[in-house]
Amino acid sequence: MVVNEGKGTDVSMIVNVKQVHRARTELFETGSVSEPLSRVVRPEILASWRRSAAFGAKPNVQSLPYQEDLAATGRLFEAAEPVLKALAESLAGLHAGVLLADRDANIVQRWVADPSIVRSLDRICSNAGFGAPEDRVGTNGIGTVAELGRAQLIVGPEHFADALVSFACVGAPIHNPTTRRLEGIITLSCKADAANALLTPLMVGTAADIENRLLQSATLDERRVLDAYLAAKQQHRLVAAIGKDLLIAGAKVTRLLDQFVDRDVLWDVVSQVVTASGSTRRVLATRAGDEVCVSCTPIHDTGRLIGALVELDESADRPAVHARRRPQAPPRCFQLPGENSKWIGALDAAARYADDRIPVVIVGKPGVGKWSVVKAMTGAEFDADTTLSIDCADIDELKPFDEQIRSTGTTFRLILIRHLEAISGQGLRELTSFIDKVRSTESPWIVATLCTEHDEVAPEQRRLMERLGGIVLPIPDLDDRPDDIPAIVRDLLARHPRGRAVHMSADAISELSRASWPGNIRQLADVVRSMIASRVGEITVADLPVDVRSRSTRRSLSTIDQLECDAIVKALHQADGNKVVAARMIGLSRSTIYRKIRAYGLDRDSAFF
């Protein structure tokens, strides 16, 4: 990985410094960011600013929490120390410091190869013992990474605290390779004008190296529990391995287990089963009122109970594990385009919940089609006079809740709640109280949607979901069902007013199917609509947007390669396709960027020169 050591690095490809500074000033002066300025701030940064303000963080924060007894010891430090020491030495020309923080955003150790940066880092308390949680410091390269659970580059005025505005920080989370729990954060801090898009994949790769070392140093008990799990998985069993501080399971099994017991008390439940006399098979009640039959098999080491295998049994007398049922064709009203098993399984479950009017929360990332599923589920029930639709994004927490959403005396059969993720604090409490009040006199069917960015649900929203008593129905990402893209594209063409005037070549559809779609169906629909609006006849591969064609090469790339490819594409666009200028912008040599363009399949004469 080549990092730009040159002076005057152009950071404009990452952030419009002047405009972001104006937005930041407006936030502190007025308490909000106006619509025009909000567009120049990256969404994740704007969301972090709002969280920081809600937490009560101050831009002129004078002191940070300090713990004198924070020890640079333990498995995390032992795994990270040689990796981060070598990284700091390799970045000697960048005038940067490398930090290791624990999962609570407390700095454990610092490595610096350039003495010239030490005084600047000390001035902002970037040293062992100090904490940088987002609720105290605001948007920063440690606390924000801990909050989001993913890598984040924060440049100059994107920071919340005044003291950090002259810095660029890029942080990456370190997850336990066995449990996938957050173990810590690594952060690189340098001067803002040295920011470089390639620092993010560099830190992501460094975090992966540390995770590999953590895996190698896993305790013997963890390894034995992991071995037992892998052996059970080879038999294609629906199984999880559980220990006192350990849960190893796929996404499907984790979701099913979460339906009948909180993860924090899961080990207590399982250990009681495996240590009790008699059968280790149990029928456990789910939160939705169903029953799940599980079999628990203890894992021992020299007589000690170190874990257990928990298998969800599809052959039990009373199975209610819907994910094990073979998906059947959903009703006609559920014939949304796509035949992928994950998609059909979600529609099949939605149809059954609709038949029984079971409360349900539709969960998924932006653009996956949550509202389309809701409309398919509730079409037969929807009646404007007996349906209450609540959009949490439009709730004004300063106005009485009842006045905003209903008329006194109205009886509702169906309550639709959109954007649960957009409500918190007082608004969330009032919504919960309102739902309880309605349920005391009526029995409405409640269907809600919740948008998650990274498969995570905030604790406040999770509590409301539990209060609703609904089943959580996840909708798969489009990248998890690329085989459905041809059907979706044909459906989009058929439904568009101008769709009959154009058609798409097989090669173009194949190219769309190979591309990654972080914005899911919504992003794909935007691309298709833009092409329909400007063309007549056949749409070919050459007509596809260049960023779509570049993404079509990436399904087989590693995360680091994808990030590097993104940085190169962005630089090429910033430089109007000039490869020499783009190379200079991201700190690559001319020969290196040409080689990488060819390797990533970006060397298209129609796109770049």
Structure summarized in a few sentences:
The protein is an alpha/beta fold and 609 residues long.
Architecture blueprint of SSEs:
Elements (H helix, E strand, L loop, with lengths): L16 H14 L4 H4 L4 H13 L18 H17 L6 E6 L4 E6 L5 H6 L10 H4 L5 H6 L3 E4 L11 E9 L6 E10 L7 H18 L3 H14 L5 E5 L2 E3 L2 H8 L7 H10 L5 E5 L5 E11 L2 E9 L28 H15 L4 E5 L5 H9 L8 E5 L9 H5 L8 E5 L6 H17 L3 E7 L7 H10 L2 E4 L10 H11 L6 E3 L1 H9 L5 H15 L2 E3 L6 H6 L7 H16 L4 H8 L3 H10 L10
Parallel strand pairs: 11-14, 11-15, 12-13, 13-14, 16-17
Antiparallel strand pairs: 1-2, 1-5, 3-4, 4-5, 6-7, 6-10, 8-9, 9-10
Description:
The chain folds into four domains: 17-216, GAF domain (Beta-Lactamase, 2-Layer Sandwich), CATH 3.30.450.40; 220-322, 2-Layer Sandwich (Beta-Lactamase), CATH 3.30.450; 326-476, P-loop containing nucleotide triphosphate hydrolases (Rossmann fold); 482-599, Helicase, Ruva Protein, domain 3. The model is unreliable at 1-9, 315-330 and 603-609 (pLDDT under 50). 40% of the residues lie in helices and 16% in strands. A hairpin with a 4-residue loop joins strand 1 and strand 2. It has helices at 17-30, 35-38, 43-55, 74-90, 118-123, 134-137, 143-148, 199-216, 220-233, 251-258, 266-275, 341-355, 370-378, 401-405, 425-441, 459-468, 485-495, 506-514, 520-534, 546-551, 559-574, 579-586, 590-599; strands at residues 97-102, 107-112, 152-155, 167-175, 182-191, 239-243, 246-248, 281-285, 291-301, 304-312, 360-364, 387-391, 414-418, 445-451, 471-474, 502-504, 537-539. Helix 22 (579-586) crosses helix 23 (590-599). By secondary structure, the chain is of the alpha/beta class. The strands form four sheets. The chain has a five-stranded antiparallel sheet.
